[in-house]
Amino acid sequence: MAAILLHAAEQGLVYGIAALGVFITYRILAFPDLTVDGSFVTGAAVASSLLVYSRFDPVSVMAIAFAAGALAGLITGVLNTRLGIKDLLAGVLTMIMLYSINLRIMGRPNISLLRVETLTRAVGRSVPWLGDASVLVFLAIVVIAVKLLLDLFFRTEIGLALRATGDNEAMIVAHGVNPKTMKMVGLAVSNGLVALSGGLVAHYSGFADVGMGLGTIVTGLAAVIIGGSLIRSRRIGWMTASVLIGSLIYRTAVMLALRYGYIVGFQASDLKLVTSLLVVVALVVPAIRGRLMRRVDACSS
Amino acid sequence: MNSKRLLIVGLVVFGLIGAAAIAAPIQIGICKIVEHPALDAVERGVIDALAAAGFVSDRDVVFLLASAQGDPNNAVPIAQSFRSQGVGMVVAISTPMALAAAEVFRDTQLPIVFSAVTDPVAAGLVESAVDPSRNGNVTGVSDLIDVAGDLALLKELSPAVRRIGIVYNPGEANSDQLTRLALEAAPGLGLTVVTAIADTTANVPMAAQSLIGRVDAFYVTTDNTVVSAIDAVIAAAEASGVPFLMADPTSLEFGPVLATGFDYYRHGLITGALIVEILSGLRPDALPVIYQSGAEIHVNLDAAGKIGLTVPSSILGRAAGLFVGGRAWSPAEGN
Amino acid sequence: MLVLDRVRRVFQSGPDRVVALGGIDLELAAGDFLTVIGSNGAGKTTLLNVIAGVIPPTEGRIRIGGIDVTAVSAHRRARRCARIVQNPLTGTAPSMTIAENLAIASRRSGRRLRCAIDRHRRSEMAEMLRTLGMGLERRLDDPVQLLSGGERQALTVVMATLARPDLLLLDEHTAALDPANVARIARLTRAFIEDLGITTIMITHNMEQALELGNRLMMMHKGEIVCDLAGEEKRRASVGQLVEWFTASHIADDELLLERSH
User: Fold this and answer.
1) Residue A178: is its pLDDT beyond 90?
2) Contact C91 A167 (CB under 8 A)
3) Fewer CB within 10 Å: N-end or C-end of chain C?
């Protein structure tokens, strides 16, 4: 059981970075961005092929993966802000383009990292005294660092302007901010994070596969919505924390379902159903809570 | 009296311990990347092979079955789940599943047996196709098709064949690798290969139609995407009046003139045999990768007739099965 | 400060054609305070929208501070030109705090990766809000959506003037508020305009207010300026005279007449 929870925590963290990316576009910018299904693989593709086919070290490949993802986000941004293509469609178009681009980067549909020194393996090697927990501790440090940097960013002048763009675009225009520029920035940072997550997942899993991005938007949204229904604060620090907590909860639920689901006759094929049900529960709980509160108020008055 | 009783007591105790040791069934985790007729057949073959070898289910072996539902992100959690359940062996069907299992069990000595992996060396699963000592705890069975042989067969079928059209999905590792092999082998046979890409089942008809008039024969390998929409390729081949060779003998009655390859249930049986060797005490690093051989040729004379093609007797003589007059005939059965 | 040169704005074409603005010529010197009245559909809001760059003119040119801004986008014009509209919810970002909204408003251009709110800024904000006398300085970290309409509009006024715009456009910005807040916001606006000497255009339905505030008054009807009073002329005019003028010009409007009685 402990091993299962350990793995669930590892996955909750590593996919949590992608969830933070989805959070930026979906919650902050109110821009449903499907690019992520493609940029997740772009990050994995870059972080694997560079490691296998060239001399880059595991840390640099992650930085390059982030940059590649940011570029993908900018493509969607250009399609939307310069060419006037609607948000959902722009994201889909970029995602489709990325499928071919990712295949080209990898050169083949999947790349094995069994025989190279991935980031997770390098960490395990450098701190052997942590044993099995080394990867978890490393991921925790990385993810918390990313979260704190993001919080800091959202407290800067540009960060505030970005938040206001999704909150009340007319207001931000009236204060001299170009909403198109803000969208580009948001899409770039978001997809950069998603690609970083893809790279880390590839190193963690020991392989990259061109089909591993399918459903990134759904699992990202699941994390955002589950976390958002638990923590209602609108302070940016709490919001990013809620996304990570949502990711941990979601991955734990998935792992437990995989491991113990057979007791209730559950099969791996029901995983997608579980995801949707989790999101439904997460959406319904606050509604029920609200109704109960109103009843309490009515009784007490 | 004492020594006799001691002996009896000793034997009983030994027998009980031995029985206890044998009585704990070994858990074998069988996982596949997606539900699919070929992969399902492999799974059945493995289970049946073990039963036939005398391993009784729930007494000697317990099978834990899992499928990643087509999502590579599920592969690692499945392998991790197996690990926490204390499996004694992992049977991974298809390349992504095998990669995930190899990674999760990397730091152990647990045997990983892969199946239905076209090129385990290129995929990075094993280092050597011939020397197992370099492959650690990983071994398995490859369904690598003799692509050059298939191309030569097409040429033998109809000497007019110069250009071969291949419809495939570059997103499938097996398919990608086999197409590459075809492109390499073609020049040596005096042939050229023209490819058409179908990255989803919906795009298969268009891809097949794009080859009409540009090729003298159609060729499809073990590509899950294309096989799901094989009717479109059959139709395109018939429309062009050219022969079609498909690397899956179970599809013969649907229309290809020729079908080669092996049946995946047999592939599963071979995998099962390999597993039995490991259960009997052989270590994976002493067992080289098995490349399934003995591809059979099946001929569909009805389809040949439709395009006005006469099948040379040299091929008919080697055929393991025929389809004519609307039904299948097998020389072995003496029809 | 502001020059409108033969500005026209036409919506639609063919039989549905609406001439919202028909050849407006207007000049405002720095420090001028222009009040604008007129019936509904007179083109007052369209005029402000064209000046702010939200809608492009069909013909004509606009110059702010001597620079031709006709082709300049709304967000770039907002660097020198601030607007407050009737809807008290439009001017603030609801899910962000008072402090964050003020921080955004403290700049009209040149935003960077600087920390937006430090301790020094916060105490400045608190000071500023204290002068409003609404207790907002104690609620710096409250999300703006918790504020009442009047409080949000007061905040919008503070935000509009914070970064010293050259031009302030007010579109009936007290019309949606309750009487207590109307007086307060009106007082607040006037104080800011006078203290900072901002060139202002204010649309109002209240004829008394139109006469009382500012040094110029303009009446619009069907996209045209029908009267333009300045200085002495304006001071001497009375509401009664304005009403006579209206009816004499065949533009009797119940709403305007009703407003007069307030």
Assistant:
1) yes
2) no
3) C
